[in-house]
């Protein structure tokens, strides 16, 4: 694969851009692979990438029922942070945030990582106490955050109203090296690197069944035929329950729609990400100038990748209180994605009752930020049978009661 560089752009400008290669190949599936990954979202692709890069396992297929990155990876609001409360969460999210810092260089693909800073507003005394606790936990975990006072919030975000009628801003948990990245580019960059290592990224191919022999996974059935495999990684976010059912086990996850919307583009007015969990909304400004707005999840299980009117109303109403100037903005688009929620709001990266079959799911409303770290850890789990980053996130925690409660860090927050 030819490298992208300033020199390559100049060279192609002189030859009418006729020399660019396809970013990834579109091969037909082989009969058998060492590892099959179901789901070409960010997590599935990152898993494959680190299998090759860290463990030299490249006889890998990543199978996607739609188009690459068309699931939650291409639908999220791109917030990246690692200010979680519990130690196992801070470890994997901070690993991920650190990998994001150099991901563009590692992949030779500009993923537009923008560490512009993320603040989580405290708008009740209860929330303030929770964030002060998180700040201290983060200090012990080596995650750099600090609790800032309302005056500093106002200095960083001049358009905010800190004296709101219902919920004045009492401070915020501020992570300076948190931020955003271009979500599609993360998927595209990993796909290009996987293809470059000889892996097969197979789009428009749905997995419809999982075969086993003597309690061990042996193949998947797909709309493009049977594909044999020695190991299987299920990385399908909101469809995890359906895939687990095919593999013969059940998961403690619920699938619900989470939605977001963007406004018309406006001049730069906010250069950090603000999350307001009490009023249930968060906002950042994209490089194009649109205000990117996210709200809460549906209160009922469903598989519809759509938004709904009442969520727009609730989210925008909540944010107008905190940012009065957005009352005059026109909203352009809304959309939804199916997220997979666990009871303790923490992910599952685990072996399963079917030998050779591994599951990565339960990232719920906040897995984009975890994409590189999740792939890094999941690759180790598949290659070696365990990883220090995944041990606490095993399926057994639900049987043993070792929950990793992140309901404060997760909430509406992504
Ligand atoms: C509106 C919204 C806002 C969000 N905002 C944020 C945020 O700001 N920050 C953050 O960190 N996270 C956020 N998230 C969550 C984040 O998007 C997800 O946790 C993350 O993208 C999950 O990535 P994934 O690769 O596991 O899943 P996906 O990207 O959904 O990939 C799974 C893939 O599996 C495929 N698949 C499913 N079934 C099959 C099958 N049978 N055969 C083959 N392929 C199959 C799907 O088509 C899909 O492409 C948000 C999510 C939504 C919906």
Q: Would you kindly provide a brief summary of this structure?
A:
This protein has helices spanning 6-14, 42-55, 87-101, 103-107, 125-141, 150-156, 183-196, 240-247, 309-322, 371-384, 396-400, 407-410, and strands spanning 32-38, 60-63, 79-80, 118-122, 146-148, 171-175, 179-180, 200-202, 207-213, 216-222, 225-234, 253-265, 273-276, 281-285, 290-297, 331-342, 348-351, 357-361. By secondary structure, the chain is of the alpha/beta class. The structure holds flavin-adenine dinucleotide (FAD).
End-to-end CA span: 35 Å
> What class would the helix/strand composition place it in?
alpha/beta
User: Superfamily at the CATH H level of the largest domain?
Assistant: FAD/NAD(P)-binding domain
The best one-word shape is globular
Q: How many whole angstroms does the radius of gyration measure?
A: 21 Å
Mean pLDDT: 95
Secondary structure tally, helices: 12
- Which ligands does the model contain, each kind named once? flavin-adenine dinucleotide
Portion of residues within helices: 25-40%
User: What is the succession of H and E elements?
Assistant: HEHEEHHEHEHEEHEEEEHEEEEHEEEHHH
The major beta sheet can be summarized as: 8 strands, mixed
Portion in strands: 25-35%
